[in-house]
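Case study 2.
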Amino acid sequence: QVQLVESGGGLVQAGDSLRISCKVSGRTATFGTYSMGWFRQAPGKGREFLAVIRWNAGNTHYADSVKGRFTISVDNAEKTVYLQMNDLKPEDTALYYCASHSLGILTTLPERYKYWGQGTQVTVSS
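Prediction:
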């Protein structure tokens, strides 16, 4: 079993930056083979893919909506995944989730992810 705990959300103003974190615990011995994704869900909307990274390989994929503004990274020593978000906009307001799978691919589909955190709220005021 793997546990994911997000943190770092909050209330910011448009144009600000914020870094959210996802701490991984549990059966992490084989976690190097996993891929880690970030998703978000705004009220009344579906879960939106943002970014994914393969833990050991480091290759990444981003949604067009955040490419160039958001950066996903991994700290293997801390067993933590980060999402650096720059130039935040009010439309970035949502509950942000991290998720993981061991399929060995970079996928944008939430149904392919086995483990999910509880989410951290990001609110961007105009």
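DSSP finds no helices and eleven strands in the chain.
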